[in-house]
Amino acid sequence: MTSTTLATLFAVDSELFRYPGPTLGMSLCSVRDPRYSLNSLIFSLWVFFMFFSISNASCLFFYGETNVELTVKSHPPGFGTKKVFLALCHPFWLLYRIFSIILFLLFLYYACSLLGFFGLFLSLLLLLLLLLLLLLLLLL
After folding, report:
1. Model's pTM, two decimal places?
2. 21 neighbors 113 (Cβ within 8 angstroms)
3. How far apart are CA 100 and CA 53, in angstroms?
4. Predicted pLDDT of residue 41
5. Plot region of 77 (φ>0 → left; ψ -120 to 50 → alpha; else → beta)
6. What would the 3-class secondary structure string for the chain be?
7. Could you read off the pLDDT of 27-83 as tens digits, one per residue?
């Protein structure tokens, strides 16, 4: 697929795929370029929430359906068995969460280049709320 085909598929500018964001050589929030448009910001946020919802759905599926019960024989014999429940959600959950946080950092780049320091502040505030939500999910 070419970048034009992808851009047509997602209804965003093809510039998003040619110039994905500020490069490492650019200083933070100093870029004012029409390539970093509102379409890029919305697209990166949409992808972030898509992966966030996929991770939640995968956790619900794995917690609800595929808990595996293993019987582990204890050493020395005669003490019976222990039951260990493996929640298969954890590796998938961590993978999706890490990837969604990386996508959110991409969103921070777009917010910074489009809105300046105010956009960066709002994005960091959203990131803080997201981390608090993740912490709440871990504690439940």
Report:
1. 0.34
2. yes
3. 10
4. 62
5. beta
6. CCHHHHHHHHCCCCHHHHCCCCCCCCCCCCCCCCCCCHHHHHHHHHHHHHHHHHHHHHHHHHHHHCCEEEEEECCCCCCCEEEEEECCHHHHHHHHHHHHHHHHHHHHHHHHHHHHHHHHHHHHHHHHHHHHHHHHHHHC
7. 444 445 555 555 666 666 666 666 666 666 666 665 554 444 444 444 455 444 443
